[in-house]
What we know:
The structure holds two protein chains of two kinds.
Chain A: H1 4-26, H2 32-56
Helix pairs in contact in A: 1-2
Chain B: H1 17-38, H2 40-49, H3 59-62, H4 70-76, E1 95-100, E2 110-114, H5 115-131, E3 139-142, H6 153-161, E4 165-168, H7 174-184, E5 188-191, H8 193-207, E6 218-221, H9 230-240, E7 243-250, E8 254-258, E9 266-269, E10 274-279, E11 286-287, E12 294-300, E13 311-317, E14 332-334, E15 339-340, E16 345-347, E17 350-352, H10 354-361, E18 367-378, E19 381-390, H11 398-413, E20 418-422, E21 437-439
Parallel strand pairs in B: 3-4, 3-5, 5-6, 6-7, 18-21, 19-20
Antiparallel strand pairs in B: 1-2, 7-8, 8-9, 9-14, 10-11, 10-12, 12-13, 13-15, 16-17, 18-19
Amino acid sequence: MKSKNNLHEMDAKIQTLKKAAQELKDSSDDFPAVFRNCSRILASIKMLEINVSDLIQENRG
Amino acid sequence: MIRSQRYWNPAVETMPHSEIRRLQLRKFQRIFKWTYDNSRFHRRLYDQAGVRPSDIHSFDDIRRIPCVEKSMMRSVQRKDPFPYGDPLAVPLEEVVEFRQTSGTTGQPVYQADTWQDWEWWAESWAYIMWAQGYRPKDRVFLPFGYNVFVAFWAAHYATEKLGAEIVPGGVLDTQARILKIQELQATAMMATPTYVLSMADTARQKMGIDPRELGIQRITCAGEPGASIPSTKQRMEEAWNAKVYDHAGATEIGAWCYECEEQSGGLHVNEAFFLVEIQDIETGEYIVEPGRRGKMIITALDRIGQPCVRFDSKDVIEWQEESCPWGRTFRLIKGGVIGRADDITKVKGVLLSPSAIEEVVRGVDGLGDEFEIIVDKVGDIDRISLKVEIDKGKEDQRTAIETELKDQLRLKTNLRYKLEFHDYGTLPRYEVKAKRFKDLRKGH
Lengths: 61, 444
């Protein structure tokens, strides 16, 4: 199994990605091409959270 | 390097099982709260039972939560938010995918998915395909009708996700599909066991093509239990000279279990994505030990649009004693989905499972792939009629075949049958899910 440290490092990068994608989405509600693509990127980031972050996070929503 | 990695997710697929259980409990608490907060249908159900998210601290607590059955969904759908009704847990504008159940057991149930749910479907299929040896070098042919039924749709997107090449064989007839496999040198395909056998038959009988020479190396099955029935699996593997793997999934649930390359006789439950509970059909007792059959209650731990929380699937399963020799720690269910709780019925006082009959028929040399089981009554006595076909060129061996079939049926099912032998090619052929079992008794 991947070490917990490794997973924590991955999770930190995932959260950075998520924050950036969410901020871009929030700033683009009049720019459909950006807004909708950000929605899809966030869905993919959720898969990263399921695969990595959920394994180490006790209470992340 | 990534191609030699055995696991799609090496962290969770080898996690000690005690940690997987803790993960499941955390994820169940999260999806239950989401469902309670966002789906009016579920909230009503849980309020009536007096169960709230703050009550759930253990697996025992989870068992207090009422189950959802397909029939309950039928009665609340086709209403606003149309057509899903109030099981929907997201605003309608977040729904991007519509699918529906086949309607085999009644009015179809509609299923809404958000894009996140659809990513999740593909993700669960990526676990399956990677465990079955699919890699970016593969060219995967999908010979199914791309329509309102979920079938292999998520496998299509999982193929893209893991970097392999997808060939959508949708609106083609069987012969055109076989020619396309040949033309493109596809390395893998997916279909119901019925269709896998039917394609091989068409190639041999109508096209003069030996399916073993088409180059298909692996086949993933769904929709019927056949790929976990040893004699049916063997027929498919011999017909195509390919490895055949089983998986199980459902529209309302997701792709929840799969056979890995080891083919250890069991299917792994993807326990990072699903919580599976097994309940004794007659007593309602929960079964945690291997070797006892019951019906499956299942929760999809990450599905948000139209949640699947403690869904009474009616699938009959049992835990397998042995663990996976490859080290994957997701638990195995023995022999896959053994049957449906509503198909396994008492005949002459004995439990009859159509899968057990399939295992016998497909294990007798000289019998064709098709068969039909009809249960009716003569007076007050149950009668089972079994219709089979003699393979082409084996007609002169009928007496020996009949003796073998009778012996095996008595041995494996402990029942007697009225046997009907038909000419090859005269019983109904199916392209998707076969309907080979008919119970015509009153009340069935």
